[in-house]
Amino acid sequence: MGRYAMGVDFGTLSARALVVDVETGRELGGAVMEYPHGVLQERLPNGAPLPHGWALQHPGDYLECLRRVVPEALAQAGVNAAEVIGLGIDCTASTSLPVLADGTPLCFLPEYENNPYAYAMLWKHHGAQAQADRMTELAQARKEPFLARYGGRISSEWMLPKLLQVLEEAPEVYERAARFVEAGDWIVSQITHSEARSAGIAGYKALWNPRDGYPSREYLAALQPRFSTVAEEKLAGPLLPLGARVGGVHPEAAAWLGLRSGTSVATANIDAHVSVPVAGAPRAGELMMIMGTSTCHILLAQEERAVPGMCGAVEGGAAPGFLAYEAGQSCVGDLLGWFVEHCLGAECARQAKEEGQSAHEFLTARAAKLRAGESGLIALDWWNGNRSILVDAHLTGLILGMTLRTKPEEIYRALMEATAFGTRTIVEAFEQAGVPVRSVFACGGIAHKNPLMLQIYADVLGREIRVARTRQAGALGSAMFGAVAAGAARGGYDTIAQAASAMGGLLDAVYRPNPRDAAIYQKLYALYAALHDQFGRDAHSPMRALRNIQSESLG
Predict the structure, then answer these.
(1) Of 12, 94, 272, 413, most Cβ neighbours within 10 A?
(2) In angstroms, rounded to a whole number, what is the distance separating the alpha carbons of residues 304 and 285?
(3) Which regions span the lipid bilayer (predicted)?
(4) By CB neighbour count within 10 A (0-12 exposed, 13-18 middle, 19+ buried), where does 82 fall?
């Protein structure tokens, strides 16, 4: 009889389940399903328009996907439910959801199905930027100690700004909600019928700390008097560390999942952070880049430092025994996807089809033939704002150097390079703050699909890059934590380091800097850094003026 763990990775666009051999890390079967409603950015399901910068999801999609992908993955793996010892869940964050006391999402109720504030606010929802700015300004004025752990700024992508937005713009939703929960925590509660909050998610996305808890009542009251009790009223519930056992699969859930009742279920994790162990046993100084629609950078360290523009430094946030710093770029795969969807000419699309390639494959092949610096282009990768190190969702993208002779593949490569320059900005911020980056790893879709992009990153960073063996980093990481939730006594592991050593690993390939290209990128990065500060830090930047004009025009 084998021993297997399952992981289910709830990403931005889809959910993916994976069955893994606990002893070897061998991936035996998987299934994926796209969310039926996708990302609600322009309209609600009823057709009602959404404001600019909004991004919502329908929580019913999570359950619909769960009901399909878990049984399909089990069937593909040929594994008996009795052999599955643990289940782990990861999800995007902060994806916040207002629910009733029994866990029912407000958008499930007829009276709230047309209210956008009743849906899950996805991680990339930027409608709370004004609230985030106020929170930052007040924390700076009050010299709140928590602010240094978050790089000196509060992001509109986090839980508390979103809740403050709901309170101020839709108080009826705020009052009706018994709690606001992270989507990952909610999914776990639907499986176990037990409620618990992930301490890791709360640490990164809700300004929670094991020593101090949530921000003080005084600070919250100064933002809005009604907000003073948000922690006790809307964020109540036990906080459990990563890998803890929330409970067993409830008999009702077991019936529709095809799992055995009582199977151990781990605390929810963030879809990026859960990937850290997939390269092997975690070590201080390791930077993992989780490269997908966006890129999240997780750096393990032993000591806490104030690093400007980081998204949080949380004890045990990725692996027990380490402080895990989070940084990120809000738009990487999405940036290349935007270019293909909106800017690719008919001729390129025709040629790609004739050659039997996707548009991305076609452009990448052509971009690979270009030398570094050949196109005369440079870009700022802020199509979805800047997460690190400027923490400003109002910033926008820029391409400099285009002429009538500029070709699509040149722009495509310049966008790749811009994301690499953004990562270098993050790495330099860490090292300038005294947090060493000793080795760089990558995982996620881009890491496996686009060798050119990894080579550009190696050249820009001037560092070797190794890639995790798995193509399903989130789901594998979740399966590892599921095995830890089961524990050694049930056939799993007692620590994530043990699970990672047995179940993780790296590809043989190593991306090493090309000296010639690295020298050219050194010059281009200097230009990027100048543009970064000119357009990103200057209060009178034309970017900010353009956004103000846009807001006025839209009324």
Answers:
(1) 272
(2) 13
(3) none
(4) exposed
Structure tokens at 1: 């009889």
Q: Is 555 exposed, middle or buried (0-12, 13-18, 19+ CB in 10 A)?
A: exposed
Q: How far apart are CA 324 and CA 313, in angstroms?
A: 5
Instruction: Write the CA distances from 385 to 217, 499, 545, integer angstroms.
Output: 30, 36, 15
Distances (CA, A) of 52 to 115, 201, 276, 547, 554: 16, 27, 33, 11, 9
The tokens describing 329, both together, are 């770029």
Is residue 269 within 8 Å of residue 491, measured between CB atoms? no
Please check whether residue 223 is in contact with residue 300, taking contact to mean a CB–CB distance below 8 angstroms. no
Per-residue confidence (pLDDT) for residue 555, from 0 to 100: 74
Task: Report the mean per-residue pLDDT for the chain.
Answer: 96
Looking at domain 4-126+155-212+237-273+473-504, what is its CATH homologous superfamily? ATPase, nucleotide binding domain (3.30.420.40)
Task: Respond yes or no on whether the N-terminal peptide bond of residue 330 is cis (omega within 30° of 0).
Answer: no
First-residue to last-residue Cα distance in the chain: 65
Q: Which residue has the tokens 């101020």?
A: 168
pLDDT 10s digits, 99-110 = 999 999 999 999
Contact between residue 228 and residue 467 where contact means Cβ atoms under 8 Å apart:
no
**Angle separating helix axes 129-142 and 159-169, nearest 10 degrees:** 110
Angle between the N-to-C axes of helices 183-192 and 59-77, in degrees from 0 to 180, rounded to the nearest 10: 60
CB 117 within 8 A of CB 170: yes
550 vs 554: CA distance, rounded Å: 6
Residues in Cβ contact with 250 at an 8 Å cutoff, skipping those fewer than 6 apart:
191, 192, 193, 261
Is residue 318 exposed (0-12), middle (13-18) or buried (19+ Cβ within 10 Å)? buried
Structure tokens at 212: 């101090």
List the structure tokens of 543: 């970017």
When pLDDT is averaged across residues 533-537 and rounded to a whole number, the result is 96
Q: Give the C-alpha separation, 229 to 477, whole Å.
A: 35
SS3 (DSSP) at 89: strand
User: Is this model's pTM higher than 0.85 or not?
Assistant: yes
Extents of the domains making up the chain: 4-126+155-212+237-273+473-504
- Please report, for residues 80, 270, 299, 502, the alpha-carbon distance to residue 316 in angstroms, rounded to integers and kept in the order given: 33, 13, 12, 20
359: confidence class by pLDDT, cuts 50, 70, 90: very high
pLDDT of 1 strictly over 80 = no
Query: What span, in angstroms and rounded, lies between the C-alpha atoms of 10 and 271?
Result: 7
Among 79, 72, 81, 88, smallest CA distance to 7 is for 88
List phi, psi (to 5°) of 163: -65, -40
Strands (E), 416-512: 439-443, 465-468, 506-511
